[in-house]
């Protein structure tokens, strides 16, 4: 089968990237994954390695010469390579900032040089601790002090957005930005702090579920397959160029309630305990209390609504962990 288009996915061996590979191949496209396997995993893409339209390049986005070669060969770029997870960012702030700022600068510059379409994955972190509910794309950012490492993530991603939008304004680079809210689903690991894989692993192994803080913080979870559907469609939507989109779920839930739901759905006898933030992230940590997206722009541009409920997601993640023998 000849490929329709060839897409480069930076960070394509990660959790979200590997689902995007699946979607792009299913639509008959060629896919080049570039990943340094720092947080990405070869297991995530192993089933594609023999596919005739798939290529894996083990390299960092800091290797400009190699990145250039593959940007040139592609029709479009999904730039997913980034620091992953609050736990990781708090532990390795220098690497996180460099990846987000320097890496993205290289990729955007090359996309601009070869005039390639590019989709940049940003984050709901950029809204920071703003208490406005829900967050809209045009809202102000409210970030904490610079001695709190968490905020470096939001700040570095915000710089990526500024740079991308500046290229769009100055050179008409075809770039689209998505701000991903809590994205979950099979293949996500708990190692970098993400709550759903952690709760599911804890429930299935009979350990206590660790709710950080008072458990009243609110999140909206979205299935990774919904996310990749959106970003694939945005890449093909000319009107979306130069625009920013919230991509997130529609069912706000407190983290304590989420823990209860995981216990119910697994049939686990685990207890739920509350752990102070300082014990996990150190003294200088601030959490985001309520993070809920306004997704009306996505509805307007793509008529898109998520197709999975939170219970669908939890059931699938539980099944995935069981299959993998947790
Ligand atoms: N969280 C928790 N227990 C855990 C891991 C995370 O209570 O074992 C909380 C975390 O403090 C946050 C929410 O769950 O309030 C979502 O955390 P995650 O790291 O998944 O994403 P975030 O929204 O912080 O980017």
Shape: globular
The share of residues in extended strands comes to 15-25%
Give the terminus-to-terminus CA distance.
38 Å
How is the biggest beta sheet arranged? 7 strands, parallel
Number of helices: 12
CATH superfamily of the domain at 6-183 and 223-248 and 293-306: NAD(P)-binding Rossmann-like Domain
Q: Please bin the fraction of helical residues.
A: 40-55%
Q: Strands of the largest sheet, in order across it? A: 3-2-1-4-5-6-11
Keywords:
12 helices, two-stranded parallel ribbon, Rossmann fold, 7-stranded parallel sheet, single chain, 13 strands, alpha/beta, 42% helix, binds uridine-5'-diphosphate, 326 residues
List the helices and strands and how they pair.
Elements: E1 6-10, H1 15-26, E2 30-35, H2 42-45, E3 54-58, H3 64-73, E4 76-79, H4 86-91, H5 93-114, E5 117-123, H6 150-171, E6 175-180, E7 183-184, H7 195-204, E8 209-212, E9 218-219, E10 222-223, H8 224-235, E11 244-247, E12 253-254, H9 255-266, E13 272-275, H10 277-281, H11 296-302, H12 310-323
Parallel strand pairs: 1-2, 1-4, 2-3, 4-5, 5-6, 6-11, 7-10, 8-13
Antiparallel strand pairs: 9-12
Helix pairs in contact: 1-8, 3-5, 5-6, 7-9, 7-12, 9-12
The structure holds uridine-5'-diphosphate.
């Amino acid at each position: 089968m000849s490929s329709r288009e060839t897409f480069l996915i930076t960070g394509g061996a990660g959790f979200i990237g590997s689902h995007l590979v699946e979607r792009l191949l299913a639509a008959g496209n060629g896919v080049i994954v570039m990943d340094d396997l720092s947080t990405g995993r070869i297991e995530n893409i192993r089933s594609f390695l023999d596919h005739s339209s798939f290529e894996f390049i083990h390299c960092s986005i800091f290797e400009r010469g190699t990145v250039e070669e593959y940007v040139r060969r592609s029709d479009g770029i999904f730039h997913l390579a980034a620091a992953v997870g609050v736990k990781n960012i708090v532990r390795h702030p220098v690497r996180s900032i460099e990846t987000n700022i320097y890496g993205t600068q290289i990729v955007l510059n090359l996309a601009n040089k070869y005039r390639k379409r590019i989709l940049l994955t940003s984050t709901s972190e950029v809204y920071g601790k703003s208490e406005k509910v829900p967050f809209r794309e045009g809202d102000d950012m409210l970030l904490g002090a610079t001695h709190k490492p968490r905020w470096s993530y939001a700040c570095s991603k915000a710089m990526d957005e500024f740079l991308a939008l500046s290229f769009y304004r100055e050179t008409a680079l075809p770039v689209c930005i998505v701000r991903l809210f809590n994205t979950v689903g099979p293949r996500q690991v708990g190692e970098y702090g993400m709550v759903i894989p952690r709760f599911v692993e804890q429930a299935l192994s009979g350990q206590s579920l660790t709710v950080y803080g008072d458990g009243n913080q609110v999140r909206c979870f979205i299935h990774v397959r919904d996310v990749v559907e959106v970003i694939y469609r945005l890449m093909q939507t000319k009107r979306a160029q130069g625009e920013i989109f919230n991509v997130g779920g529609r069912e706000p839930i407190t983290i304590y309630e989420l823990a209860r739901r995981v216990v119910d759905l697994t049939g686990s006898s685990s207890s739920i305990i509350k752990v102070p933030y300082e014990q996990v992230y150190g003294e200088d940590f601030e959490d985001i209390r309520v993070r809920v997206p306004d997704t009306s722009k996505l509805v307007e541009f793509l008529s898109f609504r998520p197709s999975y409920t939170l219970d669908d997601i939890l059931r699938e993640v539980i099944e995935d962990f069981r299959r993998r023998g947790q």
